[in-house]
């Protein structure tokens, strides 16, 4: 894209400020900026003005969850089906580690955070150890795909290399990078990160499969005969990955996707709950849960929307290829975005100051015909680290690790 074309594109979207320092830039910087202008989807910036409007939802009804007693009663059958699938090389795992972890407040990727007390215990290390449990149980290496972003790819890959992949077989680890989206102020004006670069941020955790396709990773998956992908978040240090019983239950129930869920600890807990939306599996966010839904009871007199998702899903690979052909909705999220001020100085805000645009993995579930919500014991499998202290923090995760006999 040449200067005139870039100017026209920016003018169309009301973003001419992006060229403010153009004349001061070196010719390489000018080229990079023009390339970035060409590559950036500026249409999304208009979404800022709609950020406070609630998403339109269909009719929400309960979706039955496979609860612990049912799982216990069928444990042997499910586990052996899961082990068979793993041994046949049909199961891969996808670690979503492209997020910025802004709430944790560390500049490094979340996975390199050390949660140890008497020794070093990194978040990535905990996850690899959990996956190794299944590798040892099945005698099979499970291919782990790790999604990074432009902001943390180098640091993440270097870290794994330095730590010798925490004992994992590196032949079975593949990194790929997610796409980026522009980041703007509340008026939808894109922020500048430097004089020659617009602010960008990872485009949410919903774009993972599309990014896998772009990186040629899906070809690898097909070649290896992987049929199921267990997608999970970086921040749950008790996460069970490629859990044979969960894998077997999803396969035996012939569902397109399995979703690990936990029983809510309070009716208004800030966690998205499984439901049906217009008859399709879906997730209703905690802020969308009306009093009426919160008070709805199931046939046993239990709350009907009582199980929250923990970002651990098992997707059937061939369905994903169909899903990505449809466009997932974009969500506007308010975040802290470092930017260049009027004087050309970098500012790191203390409070959210603008919008990022994200696709979410939970929207993929709605695209599928059937879902198995699968209950896990909360204190054994759910220790998310979002903040430094308080709820879902390093502190709370350490306490849960201790409860599970994990030395820190
Ligand atoms: P969160 O929604 O907690 O976002 O991510 P985050 O960026 O890690 O943290 P905050 O909100 O800025 O504090 C849930 C999971 O999705 C991944 C994260 O790495 C985490 O595993 N994620 C999120 C991505 O892989 N890419 C993204 O663009 C966003």
Describe the structure.
The protein has 408 residues and is α/β, with parallel strands linked by helices. 30% of the residues lie in helices and 20% in strands. The chain contains 14 helices and 18 strands. The chain has helices at 3-12, 27-39, 68-73, 75-87, 123-138, 153-162, 208-214, 217-224, 244-252, 291-295, 317-325, 362-365, 378-381, 394-403, and strands spanning 60-61, 91-96, 144-148, 173-177, 180-182, 192-194, 197-198, 200-202, 228-233, 257-263, 273-277, 280-284, 307-316, 331-335, 339-340, 346-347, 354-358, 371-375. The chain has a 7-stranded mixed sheet, sandwiched between helices. Strands 1-11-12 form a 3-stranded antiparallel sheet. Helix 6 links the parallel strand 3 (144-148) and strand 4 (173-177). Helix 4 (75-87) crosses helix 9 (244-252). It is globular and about 70 Å long. The mean pLDDT is 95. Uridine 5'-triphosphate is lined by residues 96-103, 110, 147, 178, 202-205, 233-235, 311, 358, 386.
Tell me, rounded to a whole number, the average pLDDT: 95
Shape: globular
- Give the strand tally: 18
Largest sheet: 7 strands, mixed
Structural class estimated from helices and strands: alpha/beta
Q: Which cofactors or ions or other ligands sit in this model?
A: uridine 5'-triphosphate
Low-confidence stretches: none
Straight-line distance between termini: 52 Å
Query: Taking Cα atoms only, what radius of gyration do you get, to the nearest Å?
Result: 22 Å
Strand arrangement across the biggest beta sheet: 4-3-2-9-13-10-18
Structure annotation, total helices: 14
| Strand portion | 15-25%
Question: How much helix, percentage-wise, in residues?
Answer: 25-40%
